[in-house]
Amino acid sequence: MICRRPFRPRARRVSLVLMDVDGVLTDGGLPFTGRGPGGRVFDVKDGVGLFIARRLGLRTGLLSGRGGADVLERARDLGIDEVHLNARQKLPVYERILVRLGIEDADVCYIGDDILDLPVLRRAGLPITPADGHPDVRRSVPFITRAAGGRGAVREAIDAIVKAQGRWPVVMSWFGGTTT
Asked: What pTM, to 2 d.p., does this model score?
């Protein structure tokens, strides 16, 4: 992770990992079948990261300007807590999430890759963009993953949050591993 500001203090407070879908959980490609958009490809490593987050008690959520049955199915498979699709104006939806959950901006990690995400990225306590995020987003956001969207960026962010919160040994214990 490229950090232009201290990461740990912000990551320690995170209780919700909220993210865009296209360009974050996917590589941003939308296969087109001639009958409308086809299915998206999701990275398994990101899915494991979301599993880890949820098992540790972190809430997870999607906040996307697009929708689709494939996204809903993936969200169900992963047990994602918050699913907000077809949100062209993301900030009002984000604000409603905060009120409903009784949390503050500082409690949220938001992962977004494009200029539509900037209003939420500017508010979230831990704003992250994938390595291949839009250039204006990369300039605006203090935390940039080394992985591209749809290629492990979400997993990288979650691993970094979990480590900053001091909970990585717990994760490793689930799998009989040791921490080094």
From this structure: 0.92
